């Protein structure tokens, strides 16, 4: 039988979210009902609310979640009732051209639940990133459930479901940072902090954090930054371009006159990407993990793109494979080697999502986490 639970929805563009009854159907043959224990408040949820993803309202928000499998469909083999899982939005299909090329991190046809959750009146809900976890229970495909060590704090490991994995993976998977390399990270929100922590975990010797907030820069030191730069405090020609930009020169000065081996842009603006491009060393790597908006354009001298060599990459979900990465980073967290718990700034009830969005806009938290 279907179950009625409380969930947080967005009914229309820019409207405040609502806590209301939602109906979770019985699982299809490959579906799973998960009892949600925690769900991080991610900027993507705010983008859904504000129409930045699509216009398929109403949305069931929430996707950065951990919980316990409550019931399973008749063909489910991946998990069993009682498993502690982190939810993911990369349930690889194994059949698309990316999967067949051995690149499942780029899977073009990821799985979602076969049935729709609804409002009490039967209106179908569009779950955020195919998950919809600002709810007491949600329905997902079995492949969206990744089993991790149940000793872990749900509010911490649930963050692997999106933001932390995006930044961590941008550094480790996409940037391929190795021991002894130098790294700069532009933007010290949750994703940028995770990239800093990932660079430290990978063995980078110098990690430069760049942000306009002195408070964030100070906090970045706790995640592994060895140096910090506030571009707003720099002199020089604010209108300079290329390597003459003050923030680029500041990075080069720290590194003895050369650029960084890897630069991660966790902001996603043309200006920050241009800075990242010139901050890197010759043949260095630039990783874009901050998400641009559709109207943005980028202009760079074509000769500079050729002459500097190296690689310019975008990072989707940190190029992660949940089945490989989530259990591994959970264990590193439990061993005290990766600071997942430090990303949790506040734990709130399911009725506090709208206020958590406000704090996110103010930049006063890395993550608010809804606990159920």
UniProtKB/TrEMBL annotation:
InterPro entries: ADH-like_C (IPR013149), ADH-like_N (IPR013154), ADH_Zn_CS (IPR002328), GroES-like_sf (IPR011032), MycoS_dep_FDH (IPR017816), NAD(P)-bd_dom_sf (IPR036291). PROSITE patterns: ADH_ZINC. GO terms for molecular function: mycothiol-dependent formaldehyde dehydrogenase activity; S-(hydroxymethyl)glutathione dehydrogenase [NAD(P)+] activity; zinc ion binding. Residues 30-149 form the Alcohol dehydrogenase-like N-terminal domain. Pfam families: ADH_N (PF08240), ADH_zinc_N (PF00107). Its EC number is 1.1.1.306. GO terms for cellular component: cytosol. Its cofactor is Zn(2+). It comes from the Bacteria. SUPFAM superfamilies: GroES-like, NAD(P)-binding Rossmann-fold domains. Residues 190-331 form the Alcohol dehydrogenase-like C-terminal domain. Keywords: Metal-binding, NAD, Oxidoreductase, Zinc. GO terms for biological process: formaldehyde catabolic process. PANTHER family: ALCOHOL DEHYDROGENASE (PTHR43880), ALCOHOL DEHYDROGENASE CLASS-3 (PTHR43880:SF12). Belongs to the zinc-containing alcohol dehydrogenase family. This is S-(Hydroxymethyl)mycothiol dehydrogenase. The lineage of its organism: Bacteria, Bacillati, Actinomycetota, Actinomycetes, Mycobacteriales.
């Amino acid at each position: 039988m279907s179950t009625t639970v409380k969930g947080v929805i967005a009914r229309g563009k820019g409207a405040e979210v609502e806590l209301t009854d939602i109906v979770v159907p019985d699982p299809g043959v490959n579906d799973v009902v998960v009892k949600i224990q925690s769900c991080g408040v991610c900027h993507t949820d705010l983008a859904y609310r504000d129409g930045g993803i699509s216009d398929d309202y109403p949305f069931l928000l929430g996707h950065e979640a951990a919980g316990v499998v409550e019931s399973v469909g008749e063909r489910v083999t991946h998990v069993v009732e009682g498993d502690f899982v982190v939810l993911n939005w990369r349930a690889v299909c194994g059949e698309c051209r990316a999967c067949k090329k051995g690149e499942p991190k780029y899977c073009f046809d990821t799985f979602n639940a076969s049935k729709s959750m609804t409002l009490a009146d039967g209106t179908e809900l569009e779950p955020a990133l195919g998950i919809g976890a600002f709810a007491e229970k949600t329905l997902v495909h079995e492949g969206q459930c990744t089993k991790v060590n149940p000793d872990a704090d749900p509010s911490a490991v649930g963050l692997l479901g999106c933001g932390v994995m995006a930044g961590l993976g941008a550094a480790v998977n996409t940037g391929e940072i190795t021991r002894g390399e130098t790294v700069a990270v532009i933007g010290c929100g949750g994703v940028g902090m995770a990239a800093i922590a990932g660079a430290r975990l990978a063995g980078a010797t110098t990690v430069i954090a760049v942000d306009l907030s002195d408070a964030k820069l100070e906090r970045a030191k706790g995640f592994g930054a060895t140096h910090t730069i506030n571009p707003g405090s720099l002199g020089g020609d604010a209108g300079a371009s290329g390597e003459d930009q003050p923030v680029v020169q500041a990075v080069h000065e720290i590194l003895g006159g050369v650029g960084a081996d890897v630069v991660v842009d966790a902001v996603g603006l043309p200006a920050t990407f241009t800075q990242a491009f010139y901050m890197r060393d010759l043949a260095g790597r630039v990783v874009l993990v901050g998400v641009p908006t559709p109207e943005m354009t980028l202009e760079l001298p074509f000769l500079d793109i050729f002459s500097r060599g190296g690689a310019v990459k975008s990072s989707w979900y940190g190029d992660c494979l949940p089945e490989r990465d989530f259990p591994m980073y959970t264990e590193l967290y439990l061993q005290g080697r990766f600071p997942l718990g430090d990303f949790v700034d506040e734990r709130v009830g399911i009725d506090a999502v709208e206020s958590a969005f406000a704090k996110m806009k103010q930049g006063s938290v890395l993550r608010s986490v809804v606990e159920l």
